[in-house]
Amino acid sequence: MKQDKPLQPDAAIFDMDGTLFETDTLLIPVHERVFRTLREEGLYSEETPSVDILLGCLGMLLEDIWRQVMPSSTEEARKRADELLLQYELEGLAAGEGSLYPHVEQTLRVLKARGVKLFIASNGLEHYVKGIAEHRGIASLFDGIYSAGEYGTRSKVDLVARLLEDHGLQSSHVWMVGDRSSDVEAGKRNGLVSIGCAYARYGEGSELCDADRLIHDFRQLVDER
């Protein structure tokens, strides 16, 4: 893993959950509501799975997440869980629940002022990803917000490739910033500088071992902390 600070890029692509957004500040109360409703509707009869399982799956596609969280459930239950999760997340965001990580907005504004084009690439649902950006007041900072839910991509690699092509970006001058192995892979396979966010990783500690650089504070993207 390289630790030298990369030169300022022409563009930076950010994951959302675990990178910009402190997901557990929203997901913990939402998780309990989802399973309470599933039981009320007769679609799930087991105890509520640990929210840590769900948090550990962040970065995956939703259909893969539910196979991990509720492996013995029916397809009907998983589809309903999709609907409830989005509904309760958007309600929570509108009510002021959920926080960005410290210094995210300020750092994004510094990068924007320096002429860096900013993007989001997330494996989440379109309305969830855009809802976070809008409700937390950062949507206007981005030149594009891409999600697997909107573009129907099967991997973060494909989603980032689509973003790069759409905006005519030269890969060697772009950062991919994220907290999961899928973000590192998306950066590497698209020829980007891969920056791993080690401040609040929801996955395994080894996931970022192939990143070009690690940061432990979001401000490290603009200074030498």
From TrEMBL:
Entry GO MF terms: hydrolase activity
The answer to whether keyword Hydrolase applies is yes
Q: What is its EC number?
A: 3.-.-.-
Q: Which UniProt keywords apply?
A: Hydrolase
Q: What class of enzyme is it?
A: hydrolase
Which PANTHER family has this protein been placed in?
Answer: PHOSPHOGLYCOLATE PHOSPHATASE
- The name this protein carries in UniProt is HAD family hydrolase
